[in-house]
Design a protein that fits this description.
The protein has 9 helices and 10 strands. The protein is an alpha/beta fold and 279 residues long.
């Protein structure tokens, strides 16, 4: 495994996000230890992704892969994975975990911005871009810039697989949680523009939220051929906190999410959507 610290050109002003090693560690521990993550979400993500993973040993870009949760899964299949992230603290955690847990394949860690990828054109056999890394910054033009970079470094006929947050579901949550008129106005702005501040008062937590039709149109505008868009999380965020540690409840929740992801009419209400698109 190699760790390369590239010059990080962060023109979008988001490179201070996760600047704290303490914050990165707390976030990572929540992600890796979460029972919901292990029993429900990871199962859904991997079931969606696996049909697009090359059977032969390939070069995979885990773009915005943070602490490497998915990097290890790809290496276990024998692939050479390049984990790229703009957070130095997250990559330090990834390095520790990969050194300890790597059993097969190869892994390289790169510190760089997804808007300025340091790779030659047509480098990767698969790009995995999980949980909003190319939507950070909150502006549509930033999303387009990141997608153009991903398109450029992907080989012809190869796939990009990833996920984004759903605009309608998050706008509904914002309305549901509103306590003031300003909260309602903020929810309406999210619905109208797609620009969303995940943590109030933290300008580095801006995301761009998609509708299903806009996601398809955006990918096609870049030049991708969309193979599939499916809901991943539609009902899970309604589960009461006291049931999140119940294995039986999570098994039922997984069954429910698997059922509704086959229903196209549910897609607009998804809190998280996964997509697969071919160059």
């Amino acid at each position: 495994m190699t760790l390369v610290f590239q010059t990080n050109n962060c023109s979008w002003g988001i490179c201070v996000f996760w600047r704290s090693q303490k914050y990165a560690k707390e976030y990572t521990e929540r992600e890796w230890r979460s029972l919901f993550r292990r029993k429900v979400y990871d199962n859904l993500v991997w079931a969606f992704t696996m049909p697009y993973v090359p059977k032969e040993k390939s070069l995979v870009l885990d773009a915005g892969g943070g602490s490497g949760r998915w990097t290890l899964d790809f290496t276990y299949l024998g692939h050479h994975v390049v984990l790229l992230d703009f957070s130095r603290p997250m990559l330090r955690l990834a390095m520790e975990k990969i050194r300890r847990l790597l059993k097969a394949g190869l892994a390289d860690l790169i510190l760089a911005d997804i808007h300025h990828l340091p790779f030659p054109p047509e480098t990767f056999d698969l790009i995995f871009v999980e949980a909003d890394p190319f939507t950070q910054g909150g502006k549509k033009e930033e999303v387009l810039a990141a997608l153009r970079q991903l398109y450029q470094v992907l080989k012809p006929k190869a796939f990009v697989v990833g996920s984004v947050s759903g605009r309608y579901a998050i706008a509904v949550t914002e309305i549901e949680d509103a306590e003031t008129i300003e909260d309602v106005k903020r929810a309406i702005k999210v619905l109208e523009t797609g620009e969303y501040q995940a943590v109030l008062g933290d300008s580095t937590s801006l995301l761009f939220l998609f509708t299903p039709s806009e996601l398809r149109e955006t990918l096609e505008k870049i030049g991708f051929h969309v193979d599939k868009i499916e809901s991943t999380i539609t009902f899970s965020h309604f589960l009461p906190k006291d049931l999140e540690q119940s294995g039986e409840a999570l098994d039922l929740l997984l069954k429910l999410e698997k059922t509704v992801r086959e229903m196209p009419e549910v897609l607009p209400y998804s809190r998280r959507m996964h997509f697969a698109a071919r160059k």
